[in-house]
Design a protein that fits this description.
Elements: H1 3-28, E1 35-39, E2 42-47, H2 56-65, E3 69-70, H3 76-85, E4 93-99, E5 109-110, E6 140-143, E7 154-157, E8 163-164, E9 168-175
Parallel strand pairs: 4-9
Antiparallel strand pairs: 1-2, 2-9, 3-9, 4-5, 4-6, 6-7, 8-9
The structure holds calcium ion (CA) (2 copies).
One calcium ion (CA) binds next to strand 7.
Amino acid sequence: MDNKKIVIAVVIVLLLLIGLFAFHIIHICPFDAKATFTYNGHCYALYEPKDKGFSWYEAKRACESKGMHLATFTSEEEWYMIKSHFDLPTDYAIWIGYTDKGEKQNHFVWITGEKDGFEYWNSGEPNNIKNDETGETEDCAIILSKSRSNEALWNDYLCSKSKYLGNEKIGYICESE
Ligand SMILES: [Ca+2]
Ligand SMILES: [Ca+2]
């Protein structure tokens, strides 16, 4: 094979690789999100609450219907990448894939089963407050809106609620594997 043919072969292989990479990025990041960000081969997609907000269960199902899961932050680096690249909202809270439902209370686990000790709780959280009417305890983690926490700290909250403290709708972040 002469040099020209080798160069053409290399260019074809490179174009195929670039095409595959582009397809991968486009394919795994949904178009209907408010914002998306790709880090470490994972797509993160932020969804606004829209009309009424989402319960944690609705948010979890919505991510699953897109072939994704509620976002999990298993290292400090991962969390800070998301926190700095997403313009986190001032006016709504966000569900993430962190829960202590069915676990020892205040011992939260990532829904993917990933093991990591990284947490970013607001001071005094998680506090597992019980709703006196329903008996439900706070078992699902949200990222607080920036109007409540400029640092976007986390709180445990009632999984069945689609609004935070009565009036602030809750959105969510999905992540692809
Ligand atoms: Ca709890
Ligand atoms: Ca709480």
